[in-house]
Amino acid sequence: MNEQLHIENQLCFRLYKLNKSITRLYAPLLKEAGLTYPQYLVMLVLWQDEQAKSIKDIGAILELDSGTLSPLLKRMEKLGLIKRTRSKTDERSVAIELTAHGKEIKNKAKFIPAKLLMLTGLTKIELKQLQQDLDELLHNTQQHL
Amino acid sequence: MNEQLHIENQLCFRLYKLNKSITRLYAPLLKEAGLTYPQYLVMLVLWQDEQAKSIKDIGAILELDSGTLSPLLKRMEKLGLIKRTRSKTDERSVAIELTAHGKEIKNKAKFIPAKLLMLTGLTKIELKQLQQDLDELLHNTQQHL
DNA sequence: AACAATTACATTGTGCGCAATATAATTGCA
DNA sequence: TGCAATTATATTGCGCACAATGTAATTGTT
């Protein structure tokens, strides 16, 4: 009997479940704004400073490649959230910017983080500590990629 | 400027990246055994006690529904990892059991958890503490689903 | 200037994950 | 017993995630 192979002992399985669990918590809140979770992540990046960003920039922040982002951003354009424009200074690059509708949604979305924090039941101090732990782990794992 | 909406302040984003990052760490190790990560999770469940389990049982453990498991298990059958059999006592139920090949793979896989733990750079104590923290968070979030 | 290498993005194909719906078997209850 | 409700699984459709490949624009080198 190999205790290490026991599924409940595996860190990865907890992260797998927790990630799904949190995504499901977001779903109803995001639905009100008409967003999926990955779309929400893109919007967070664009809301940051409301400046146009290239697909490359967005990919670097979210750690997603063009195979994921190209169709995702096309869907978001069809939903009227963003506009895609070929850069004139570099025709290879595509600039992504928010539409007026995309900017408006921020007002609905800005209450989401607080709502979610409440659902986690974490205090601000626990949150900060957990974020540090996860950052350290993220740093370690990414060294081996 | 809404600090809460800043993507780098969001717990969910860390979990999202960490989950992807860890899955990518597994990928090359699992490839040697011819498994994807979700397939590995199913195998972990079946390796536990090498007894046939229903799709429902597997779904309860992995928190996956038939929409995910039905095609996943069909692919695994095609790969020769498992066998699917309609239960005779209850024709609605499908029993999943390991093939000889499926059992053999355990010998390759049993070294994976230790390898991965090393890549995380965590001590056993840190691991245990983190697992507890994640369990608590998982428990809290699942209360609201 | 010519051309090889690199870069930014798009496309194709595969495998999840999940909502919604369908179907057949079983159970529960009047 | 008959029939409505429940249960176990399957199917469809959509949206990621990512590997592999393709393409056009740009850069670097000689």
Could you please describe the fold and organization of this structure?
2 copies of one chain form a homodimer. The first copy, chain A, is mostly helical and 145 residues long. Chain A has 2 domains: 1-32 and 111-145, no CATH class; 34-109, Arc Repressor Mutant, subunit A (Orthogonal Bundle), CATH 1.10.10.10. The first copy, chain A, contains 7 helices and 3 strands. The first copy, chain A, has helices spanning 11-33, 37-48, 55-62, 66-78, 100-109, 112-120, 124-142; strands at residues 53-54, 82-86, 94-98. Chain A has a 3-stranded antiparallel β-sheet with strand order 1-3-2. In chain A, strand 2 (82-86) and strand 3 form a beta hairpin. The first copy, chain A, is globular and about 60 Å long. At the A-B interface, helix 1, helix 2, helix 6 and helix 7 of A face helix 1, helix 2, helix 6 and helix 7 of B. Chain A binds a DNA duplex (30 and 30 nucleotides) through residues 20, 23-24, 27, 36-39, 54-56, 64-72, 75, 90-94. Chains A, B: It is found in: Cytoplasm. Chains A, B: Its main location: cytoplasm. Chains A, B: Residues 8-139 form the HTH marR-type domain. Chains A, B: This is MarR family transcriptional regulator. Chains A, B: It holds the Pfam family Staph_reg_Sar_Rot.
Which characteristics define this entry?
homodimer; mainly alpha; DNA-binding; 2 domains; three-stranded antiparallel β-sheet; 3 strands; 145 residues; Arc Repressor Mutant, subunit A
